[in-house]
Automatic annotation (TrEMBL):
<dbReference type="InterPro" id="IPR007527">
    <property type="entry name" value="Znf_SWIM"/>
</dbReference>
<dbReference type="GO" id="GO:0008270">
    <property type="term" value="F:zinc ion binding"/>
</dbReference>
<feature type="domain" description="SWIM-type">
    <location>
        <begin position="84"/>
        <end position="122"/>
    </location>
</feature>
<keyword id="KW-0479">Metal-binding</keyword>
<protein>
    <recommendedName>
        <fullName>SWIM-type domain-containing protein</fullName>
    </recommendedName>
</protein>
<keyword id="KW-0862">Zinc</keyword>
<dbReference type="GO" id="GO:0097196">
    <property type="term" value="C:Shu complex"/>
</dbReference>
<keyword id="KW-0863">Zinc-finger</keyword>
<dbReference type="GO" id="GO:0000724">
    <property type="term" value="P:double-strand break repair via homologous recombination"/>
</dbReference>
């Protein structure tokens, strides 16, 4: 993939997700439309399929928020019920696929966990759980424990 396309694909992906988010908010329809699924699949391919599998197995994700709601971590269960924590709207995940497919090979825009989290946010499939600052920091540290265990 040439560098021009590599620069444009994330912008297109964010644009598509933004349009879906706007449509969901305006019409209060909490489902993805067929044409939206086709558009998402044209950008994300198999990553979308794996993200939708996660959403099917775990229809609601937990959002750990501090009292003032300035800090938020989303918890996504991956394969073997392993938990990954990601930030809303930030393209980062401590999983192996993110490291290799997104960062190193640049063959994907998001990993399945980040995409599943974005879709869950858009569709309102989030259950908030308030935590203290210390609990939030503990959750944040655990993200990097997973990263170190992944190599």
């Amino acid at each position: 993939m040439n560098s021009y396309i590599r620069l444009k694909v994330p912008v297109v992906a964010e644009s598509i997700l933004g349009k879906i988010e706007k449509r969901v908010a305006e019409l209060d329809n909490k489902d993805l439309l067929d044409e939206e699924l086709l558009t998402l699949h044209s950008v994300f391919g198999n990553v979308l399929e794996r993200s939708l599998d996660i959403l099917e197995k775990h229809p609601s994700f937990t959002a750990y928020t501090t009292k003032n709601k300035l800090r938020v971590l989303l918890e996504i269960k991956g394969e073997n019920d392993r938990c990954y924590r990601v930030f809303p709207r930030i393209n980062y995940c401590p999983c192996y696929s993110f490291k290799h497919q997104v960062l190193e090979h640049k063959s994907q825009v998001f990993c399945k966990h980040v995409l599943a989290a974005r879709i869950a946010l858009i569709l309102g499939r989030i259950t908030e759980h308030e935590v203290t600052q210390d609990q939030y920091l503990m959750l944040l540290r655990s993200m990097y424990d997973i990263e170190e265990n992944n190599g």
